[in-house]
Amino acid sequence: MTEARRRNSRGSGPELRRELLDAAIEALLEPQPLPLPSLRAIARKCGVSASAVYMHFPSQDALELTIATELFEQLRQHLDAGDIYGAPPRERLYALTTAFVGWALKHPGAYQMLFERADPHVESGTGPGLDLLDRVADLLQTGDDAARRLIAMRIWAGLHGVASLHIHKQSAPWQETPLDAAWSIVASQFDSAQNQRLG
Q1: Is 167 exposed, middle or buried (0-12, 13-18, 19+ CB in 10 A)?
Q2: In this predicted model, what pLDDT tens digit does every residue of 57-84 receive, in sequence order?
Q3: Alpha carbon distance 158, 183 (integer Å)
Q4: Among 6, 29, 30, 26, which residue's Cα sits nearest to residue 18?
Q5: Considering just the CA atoms, what is the radius of gyration of the chain in Å?
Q6: d(CA 160, CA 100)
Q7: Where along the chain do its domains lie?
Q8: What is the DSSP string of the chain?
Q9: CATH number for the 64-198 domain, one of 3.90.230.10, 1.10.260.40, 1.10.357.10, 3.20.20.30?
Q10: N or C: which end of the chain has fewer CB within 10 A?
């Protein structure tokens, strides 16, 4: 597509439609940012001036990082409350799966904030919330740390897929509950890892 297109001649509507569609699809080649409340919107909601907000959050990035940290802490507390400490690892993993999926579906906007947007403010492999991987990895009784984290990442990916699809595709022809779908994926990964250890 040319950088400066000339005005279409009469009768070139289909060509323009195609060009517009191609431009829109090209724009979607990069991840799209999830719009979050701006500092000014937060100020209006609290009935204060924008300058008052800047005293506590000097930038939008600072606000977003603080929000993410707070939401991860809320999720962490929810998982703590649902965990069955002292139970066998498989039972604990089911309890954590139940808690994770339940929190995601009850807080879809917060879930999108945490798991459906890029983290431009952190380096790869760092940032709030990544300790959730360790929580799952610690339940696995196979391999070294790298192997356990690999399985934990697969479990996380499966959980995310189920949660995200149920948030955005509620009219899909689901044949099982979100928890049943999530547990079938999680249990498969867990059992496979344990069988490899025993084999």
Answers
A1: middle
A2: 888 888 888 888 899 999 999 999 999 9
A3: 9
A4: 26
A5: 22
A6: 9
A7: 64-198
A8: --SSPPPPPTT-HHHHHHHHHHHHHHHTTSPPPPP---HHHHHHHHT--HHHHHHH-SSHHHHHHHHHHHHHHHHHHHHHHH--TTS-HHHHHHHHHHHHHHHHHH-HHHHHHHHSS--TTS-TT-STTTHHHHHHHTT--SS-HHHHHHHHHHHHHHHHHHHHHHHH-TTS---S-HHHHHHHHHHHHHHHHHHHHH-
A9: 1.10.357.10
A10: C
Distance CA 123, CA 176 (A): 37
Q: Specify the amino acid at residue 50.
A: A
Nearby residues of 165 by Cβ (< 8 Å), 6 or more positions away: 172
> Closest Cα to residue 75, out of 104, 98, 97?
104
Structure tokens at 123: 């380096």
pTM reported for the whole predicted model: 0.82
Token pair for residue 2?
Answer: 């040319």
Return d(Cα 165, Cα 168) in angstroms, integer. Answer: 5
